[in-house]
């Protein structure tokens, strides 16, 4: 029987929670389930958390909050999903891509080389759940020469006084860096709750706020919550009390709030994430690690060292010495054996939109090297250990049997 690449977790708890939203609260848009989901995610991050309708919209919200727009630059790694670039491009900003390290994350040295007086934000990506090197990134951004280049053009930029770090933590809820949970590693950390991610609401995103003083993160939460609802300072739920009809539009916002019906799905998952779902992903990740460690053609993905621990979102296997053509033949053999795999990611500089904007893959040799021999294996909670064993068998046979 075929093994799909990915399946969302829709179990009895999810169905019960959605049923509760429909039958007991009778509330569909942003309301009590969203508040509960934010509180549960805050237990993981240790920060205030705002839920929105996607990672992409959440990242746009943070850049908009900072006042990023035309003429500004945002630095991102060349190796990521296109949304990391689009959140900035959709605000009219220019995306500056830099090459990555062997562990798939942005190279802090390349950030130094890319900063200009137009740079307003850096968006590191925690690839596959493996945190970027935030201390090294912060150290570069705190260098006197780099700080001196920062040119504030809005009151919030003035208050911050340096380049903002927005983490693309689409993969990395539950990951840790030097004992600190993802959510406290950047100024703002945006998680994705899309259907393929570790926790899902169907579509959704969550922003963990960790802004430095003098910002008050609770105050910014309240402001951002309005900004995610057309700038309206009172939601339909909060107005749904006799006499509470008056509201204000306090700023020009986006309309990106999360519906309660979506929050219910994630609420059932997040409650058992730390105790059950995340350990289960790690167990399967380790089965892959142990199996492929026995093959000298395998380059294993980063997972755990003295400082970092991954959230085991993607199993990014690489085939030593394989070029793109051989990797593609291996994928064909794996597909013919009924196993769904993927490649994370086709570098943006190889996609039409970005090529048309002048980005060239020749400028990102490490990104191309990582991409050209990478195959992502199935990894999700409903994948059985017998299926993991079958994936391993099929992948080993396909690699060793494909010239
Ligand atoms: C999934 C993903 C996103 C986008 O998330 P959405 O919630 O679909 O907007 C952004 N960055 C990375 C690295 C992703 O994998």
Strand content: 5-15%
Could you state the CATH homologous superfamily of the largest domain? Type I PLP-dependent aspartate aminotransferase-like (Major domain)
Number of helices: 16
CATH topology of the largest domain: Aspartate Aminotransferase, domain 2
User: Which regions are unreliable across 5 or more consecutive residues at pLDDT < 50?
Assistant: none
Ions and ligands:
pyridoxal-5'-phosphate
The overall strand count is 13
Helical fraction = 40-55%
Q: What would CATH call the architecture of the largest domain?
A: 3-Layer(aba) Sandwich
Rg over CA atoms, rounded to whole Å, is 21 Å
Sketch the major β-sheet.
Answer: 7 strands, mixed
Overall tally of domains = 2
**Major β-sheet strand ordering:** 1-9-8-5-4-2-3
Overall structural class, as computed from helix and strand content, comes to alpha/beta
Order of helices and strands: HHEHEHEHEHHHEEEEEHHHHEEEHHHEH
CATH class value of the largest domain: Alpha Beta
How far the N terminus sits from the C terminus, by CA atoms, comes to 26 Å
Indicate the overall shape.
Answer: globular
What is the averaged pLDDT score?
A: 97
Verbal overview:
- There is one protein chain.
- This protein has about 400 residues and is α/β, with parallel strands linked by helices.
- The protein folds into 2 domains: about 10-270, Aspartate Aminotransferase, domain 2 (3-Layer(aba) Sandwich), CATH 3.40.640; about 275-400, Aspartate Aminotransferase, domain 1, CATH 3.90.1150.10.
- Helices cover about 40% and strands about 10% of the residues.
- It has 16 helices and 13 strands.
- The chain has helices spanning about 10-25, 30-45, 55-65, 85-90, 110-115, 135-140, 145-150, 155-160, 215-225, 235-240, 260-270, 275-290, 325-335, 350-355, 365-370, 385-400; strands at about 50, 75, 95-100, 120, 165-170, 175, 180, 190, 205-210, 300, 310, 315-320, 375.
- A 7-stranded mixed sheet has the order 1-9-8-5-4-2-3, with helices on both faces. The protein has a 3-stranded antiparallel sheet with strand order 7-6-11, with no helix packed on it.
- α3 packs parallel to α4 and α12 (about 275-290) runs parallel beside α16.
- The longest helix is centred in the last third of the chain and has 20 residues, at about 275-290.
- The chain is globular, with a radius of gyration of 21 Å.
- The two termini are about 25 Å apart.
- The mean pLDDT is about 95.
- It binds pyridoxal-5'-phosphate.
- The site of pyridoxal-5'-phosphate has 14 residues, from α3 and α4.
- Pyridoxal-5'-phosphate (PLP) binds near residues 54, 55, 56, 81 and 125.
């Amino acid at each position: 029987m075929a093994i799909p690449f990915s399946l969302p977790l829709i179990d009895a708890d999810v169905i019960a929670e959605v049923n509760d939203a429909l039958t007991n609260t009778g509330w569909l848009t942003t309301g009590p389930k969203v508040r509960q989901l934010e509180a549960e995610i805050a237990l993981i991050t240790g920060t205030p958390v705002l839920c929105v309708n996607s990672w992409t919209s959440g990242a746009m919200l943070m850049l908009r909050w900072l006042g990023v727009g035309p003429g500004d630059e945002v630095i991102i790694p060349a190796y990521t999903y296109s949304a990391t670039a689009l959140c900035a491009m959709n605000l009219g900003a220019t995306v500056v891509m830099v090459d990555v390290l062997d562990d798939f994350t942005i190279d802090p040295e390349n950030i130094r080389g890319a900063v200009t007086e137009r740079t307003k934000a850096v968006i590191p990506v925690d690839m596959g759940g493996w945190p970027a090197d935030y201390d090294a990134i912060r150290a570069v951004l705190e260098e006197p020469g780099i700080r001196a280049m920062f040119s504030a053009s809005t009151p919030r930029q003035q208050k911050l006084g340096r380049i903002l770090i927005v983490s693309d933590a689409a993969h990395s809820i539950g990951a840790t860096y030097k004992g600190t949970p993802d959510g406290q590693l950047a100024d703002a950390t945006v998680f994705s709750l899309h259907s393929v991610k570790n926790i899902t609401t169907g579509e959704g995103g969550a922003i963990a706020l960790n802004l430095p003083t003098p910002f008050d993160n609770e105050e910014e939460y309240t402001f951002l919550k309005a900004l995610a609802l057309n700038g309206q300072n009172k939601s339909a739920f909060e107005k749904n009390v006799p006499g509470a009809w008056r509201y204000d539009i306090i700023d020009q916002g986006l309309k990106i709030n999360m519906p309660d019906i979506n929050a219910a799905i994630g609420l059932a998952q997040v409650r058992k994430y730390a105790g059950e779902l995340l350990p289960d992903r790690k167990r399967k990740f380790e089965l892959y690690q142990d199996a492929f460690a026995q093959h000298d053609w395998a380059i294993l993905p980063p997972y755990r060292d003295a400082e970092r621990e991954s959230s085991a979102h993607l199993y990014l296997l690489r085939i030593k010495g394989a070029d793109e053509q051989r990797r593609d033949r291996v994928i064909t053999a794996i597909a013919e054996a009924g196993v769904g795999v993927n490649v994370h990611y086709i570098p943006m500089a190889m996609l039409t939109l970005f090529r048309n904007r002048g980005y060239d893959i020749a400028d990102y040799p490490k990104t191309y090297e990582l991409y050209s021999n990478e195959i992502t294996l199935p990894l999700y909670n409903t994948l059985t250990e017998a299926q993991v064993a079958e994936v391993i068998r099929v992948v080993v046979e396909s690699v060793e049997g494909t010239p």
